[in-house]
Each structure stands twice: as structure tokens, then as C-alpha cells.
């Protein structure tokens, strides 16, 4: 299996989202998974022109020993019927900088260990752990 379909399955992506690129930077120990969306209205599914986009990134569960980021230019489309709408990402909620699966991992660790230990082991700041 090639890497893009593999990451689509790992992330549980489905239309309109797909993985467009996966990059491994061994020096920085980072996998970057770029997700893209087909431009269609999230309400009616009609192909719609891009209105604008916002570059975002989320920390995801590690890929083996490599910290993994999902990045995407999250588009807003202009549907002739429904107006300007954002195509929501399925892997994270709201304005979180973490995927839902990563947040679940952090919550499970916080049941088992101190904030300091979780912060150290997952390389997260105290603020990231206590903000929500
Ligand atoms: Zn529409």
C-alpha cells in the first residue's frame, strides 16, 4: 500500500478529504501528512468554487518513533445555494491544534500520570495540558 492511501485509512478520511502528500524529515523526527479536500458544498455536495483557505496544523499520534503533524489548507467554498461555508475537518474539533485521537491519548495518560509526567513524555507544554 502506498503512503497516501495508508494515511487516509489511518486518519479515517473519506470524501471530500484525501491525503495529498506525506513527508518524512528524519533530521527533525517529524512526519508531515498533508490533507486536501475536493471543493464541494458541505451542505449539498455540489462542486463549488473556493472562496478562501486557512492553513492549519494538528499534532496527531506518532508514526512509530516520529512525531506526526496533519496539515491542511482548510477551504471555504461559495455554494450558489448555501453561500460561503467551511469544509470541516473530520480529525479534530473546533480550533484545537490536536487531532481528536491525540487528545484522547492525552486524556488517557492524564488518568495514569501527573501533568508534569505527561507533559515531559508527550513533549507538550503545561499550557497545552491545562487549557481545556
Ligand atoms: Zn450547497
UniProtKB/TrEMBL annotation:
Pfam families: HTH_Tnp_ISL3 (PF13542), Zn_ribbon_ISL3 (PF14690)
Domain Transposase IS204/IS1001/IS1096/IS1165 zinc-finger: 40-82
All residue ranges annotated as the Transposase IS204/IS1001/IS1096/IS1165 helix-turn-helix domain in the record: 88-129
UniProt protein name: Transposase family protein
Species of provenance: Halomonas eurihalina
Amino acid at each position: 500500500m502506498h503512503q497516501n492511501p495508508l494515511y487516509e485509512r489511518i486518519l479515517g478520511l473519506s470524501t471530500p478529504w484525501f491525503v495529498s502528500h506525506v513527508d518524512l524529515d528524519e533530521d527533525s523526527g517529524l512526519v508531515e501528512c498533508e490533507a486536501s479536500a475536493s471543493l464541494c458544498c458541505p451542505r449539498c455536495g455540489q462542486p463549488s468554487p473556493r472562496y478562501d483557505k486557512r492553513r492549519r496544523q494538528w499534532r496527531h499520534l506518532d508514526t512509530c518513533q516520529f512525531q506526526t503533524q496533519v496539515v491542511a489548507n482548510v477551504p471555504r467554498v461559495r455554494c450558489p445555494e448555501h453561500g460561503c461555508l467551511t469544509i470541516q475537518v473530520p480529525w479534530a474539533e473546533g480550533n484545537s491544534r490536536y487531532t481528536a485521537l491525540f487528545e484522547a491519548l492525552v486524556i488517557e495518560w492524564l488518568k495514569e500520570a501527573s501533568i508534569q509526567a505527561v507533559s515531559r513524555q508527550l513533549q507538550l507544554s503545561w499550557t497545552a495540558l491545562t487549557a481545556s
